[in-house]
Each structure stands twice: as structure tokens, then as C-alpha cells.
Design a protein that fits this description.
Helices cover about 80% and strands about 0% of the residues. The protein is an all-alpha fold. This is Inorganic phosphate transporter.
């Protein structure tokens, strides 16, 4: 019975990973599609490939943070297998519901913060505030602000440098060169997306296994977890929806290939660097910041600030909304378990 429950929760975790890729596909392909360098179908295949390639060099620092840096793993494990499974199931479902809602609304919210919020909301009814790792949560909250700011700064820097290097070239030559280079920048960003986002679910799966059937083993991220999570997010990216692509690639600002290159490179470099530090940042926040930074180099009016403001509100509400949904799911799941007993 326990093994069946564990397998089901791991399956739900991989489903979240798939939905993460589906939801965040726009982050990886919006710029390369909006500049018409690749068709949507080719773009998602390109992005999905590099999502998976990240399994062979992305590391596991973010996975360890998600597994032990948001909730107190030892306190949670002390609640027994049922407690661990209820908390993780509720966290995943809270994050999944919020991701699907924001996908339907066409808002590029953060899957990373949805999952973090879900973990907080599911843990509070069981362990209270003592079950939370304050330093880890504070780090995530700080980078809700810092990651888009870094994206803006690197987007502006890359755009300024690229424009300066090519300022003596004809517009046709600039466009031709950066259409080619945007394939590289898109690959960098897709790699960074896999390196950051797939790791979150590895940490969750590790909590489930080492908190239940493997509770006598030392917590670690197994190789099969890495490969399965990267495969799930790559598949999700491949089947990703068009709604958020439209918001990111068309509604926020208009991009030429040189701008797409600058945004993807700036955003990708930021995410890879922070992933190596074990910080589960939002790829959504970072690439949005980079796109805004690139757009702002053409003047204040080049960015549609009304759309940017709508995106900002989605960022603000993601953590508390996912936490609330996870708490509600936990309450319902707890009642269901008691009724069965």
C-alpha cells in the first residue's frame, strides 16, 4: 500500500514537471518565435532538446535547496510516511492548480514560486512555522525581486554591446547575423530553463522517497531522478501552449533578432549562474526582465507597461495563492484519509 502511494506521488511530481515545461515553454521560445527565426513547432523541439541536455551538466544544487532548504526535512520525516505523502501531494496539487489557472489566463507566472508556495502552504497546517526554513524562503523571496532586475540589467547590457559592435553594419546584415546567433541564445536559455526548473521536482521526489520507503538512507539526488525529471520537462516544453507565447513574444514589446539574442542570452546566463548557487529562481521572471530591458533601450514607450503590470501582479500573488490552494488541498486530503481509516 505504501509503495503504491509513493509511486503515485512520484507520478504526480513528474506530471507537475511536465506542466512546468508546458507552462514555461513560452519562456524558452517566445523571442525566437516573435522574431520569426523559427516556426513555433521547430522552436519547441529545439527548446525541448536543450531542456533535456541540461541533465548532463545542470547540477543538483537547486534540487537540494527544494528538498531541504524550504521545509525542515527531518521534522517532516518525523511525521511518518502518511504525513510526508500528504504534505508533498498537497504542495504539488496547489502548484499545479495555480499553474493551470495562470496558463489559462495567459499570464507568465512562476512555476518555481508556485511549488515553493505550495510546499509552504501544505507544511503550515502540519508543522507550523517551525517546520519552515526561514533562510531558504527569504532567499527565494529576495530573488523574486532580484532575478528580473538582473534580467533587465543583462538584457540592457547585451543589447547595448550588440548594437555598438554592429553599428557600422547594414540592417540586413545585422538581421542575418542575429537570426543565426539567436539559435545559440535560444539554446542557452532553454538549457538554463532545464538546469533550473527540472531540479525542483528532483528535490520533491527525493523528499518523498527518503521520507518514506528509503527513510533509513541518506538524502541524495539519484541519477534516475535527474534523467526522468529532465525528460518530463522536455516533453512538457514540446507540447507547450501558445497563450503565454503571445503575451511574452508579442504583447510585452516588439523584438528584432538582435533583441531576441540579447534577451535570451542575458536571461539564460543569469539563470545558469544562480542555479549553480542553488537558488531556485523563476525563469519566467528573469526572461521577462530581460525582454523589458531590451525593449527599454528603444525608449520608455517601446515597452507596454500595462502588460508588464499585469504580469507583475501574477508574480506577487503566486506564492500566497499557491500556498492557500495547497493548504485547502491538505485539509481535504486529510479528511479523506481519516474517513478511510
Amino acid at each position: 500500500m505504501l509503495l503504491t502511494a509513493v509511486v503515485l506521488i512520484v507520478a504526480v511530481a513528474l506530471l507537475f514537471d511536465f506542466i512546468n515545461g508546458f507552462h514555461d515553454a513560452a519562456n524558452s521560445i517566445a523571442t525566437v518565435v516573435s522574431t520569426r527565426v523559427l516556426s513555433p513547432n521547430l522552436a519547441v523541439a529545439w527548446a525541448a532538446f536543450f531542456n533535456f541536455v541540461a541533465a548532463f551538466g545542470g547540477g543538483v544544487q537547486v534540487a537540494n535547496t527544494m528538498g531541504k532548504g524550504i521545509i525542515d526535512f527531518e521534522l517532516l520525516r518525523a511525521q511518518g510516511s502518511t504525513g510526508v505523502l500528504l504534505v508533498i501531494f498537497s504542495a504539488l496539487m496547489g502548484a499545479i492548480v495555480w499553474n493551470l489557472l495562470t496558463w489559462w489566463w495567459g499570464l507568465p507566472s512562476s512555476s518555481s514560486h508556485a511549488l515553493a508556495g505550495g510546499m509552504v502552504g501544505a507544511t503550515l497546517p502540519v508543522l507550523g512555522f517551525q517546520g519552515l526554513v526561514g533562510a531558504g524562503i527569504a532567499k527565494i523571496i529576495v530573488f523574486i525581486v532580484l532575478s528580473p532586475v538582473l534580467g533587465v540589467l543583462l538584457g540592457v547590457t547585451m543589447m547595448t554591446v550588440s548594437t555598438w559592435v554592429m553599428h557600422r553594419q547594414s540592417p540586413l546584415k545585422v538581421d542575418t547575423w542575429f537570426r543565426r546567433l539567436q539559435l545559440v541564445s535560444s539554446a542557452i536559455f532553454s538549457y538554463s530553463h532545464g538546469a533550473n526548473d527540472a531540479q525542483k521536482v528532483m528535490g520533491i521526489i527525493a523528499v518523498v522517497l527518503f521520507g518514506t520507503i528509503w527513510k533509513d538512507r541518506e538524502f541524495q539526488i539519484e541519477r534516475w531522478m535527474i534523467l526522468s525529471c529532465h525528460a518530463a520537462i522536455a516533453l512538457g516544453t514540446f507540447f507547450g501552449g501558445w497563450r503565454i507565447v503571445k503575451t511574452m513574444g508579442h504583447s510585452l514589446t516588439k523584438l528584432a533578432p538582435i533583441g531576441g539574442f540579447a534577451a535570451e542570452t542575458g536571461g539564460g546566463v543569469t539563470i545558469i549562474a544562480l542555479a549553480k548557487l542553488g537558488i531556485p529562481v523563476s525563469t519566467t521572471h528573469t526572461i521577462t526582465g530581460a525582454i523589458v530591458g531590451v525593449g527599454s533601450t528603444r525608449g520608455w514607450r517601446a515597452v507596454k507597461w500595462g502588460v508588464a503590470g499585469r504580469i507583475l501582479w501574477a508574480w506577487v500573488f503566486t506564492l500566497p495563492a499557491a500556498a492557500l490552494m495547497a493548504s485547502l488541498v491538505y485539509g481535504l486530503a486529510r479528511l479523506a484519509v481519516l474517513a478511510v481509516r
